Amino acid sequence: MNCRKMERAVLSKPEVLREFNQHFIVASLYCDDKTLLPESEQYISKDGSEITTLGAKNLDLELTRFGAVAQPLYIFVDENGEVLKSAGGYEPDVQRFLNIIKEVKEIHKQKMALK
Fold it and tell me: What Gene3D superfamilies does the annotation carry (predicted)?
């Protein structure tokens, strides 16, 4: 699975981990999680799919909130949940990912300066 390949090739590298630990809160939404949702949390999505598992709920969130269905998909959001940048999916290039992190930090810095 590309998610695990990306974790090994990029996300586990010390320089990436350092950036994550110092500047970000990381949330992982596993779309393959088969844990059943409590009946009170099950629902029908906008496209008519029955959402009964945690993985399906995460996939529905990915689609409705970010307009994409990819595994993996890396999205940087600010403290208000606004998208700063999409890093896309599986690209096992550490320097590319570090460049995106640098860009995201700069975007956030500029947004904060405008406030």
Answer: Glutaredoxin
| 98's tokens | 């570090």
Contact status, residue 21 vs residue 102, Cβ threshold 8 Å: no
Q: DSSP H helical segments within 1-115, as ranges?
A: 2-6, 14-23, 54-66, 94-114
| Nearest residue to 48 (alpha-carbon basis) of 37, 36, 63 | 63
Q: How far apart are CA 35 and CA 76, in angstroms?
A: 26
What CATH number is attached to the domain comprising 22?
3.40.30.10
Q: Which amino acid is at 95?
A: Q
* Residue 26, token pair as written in the block: 């990381």
Q: What is the DSSP letter of 79?
A: T
Mean pLDDT score, 31-37: 95
Look at residue 69 in the predicted model and tell me its pLDDT: 84
Residue 26 is part of which domain span? 2-114
Residue 51: enclosing H or E segment and its boundaries? strand 50-51
Q: What is the pLDDT of residue 68?
A: 86
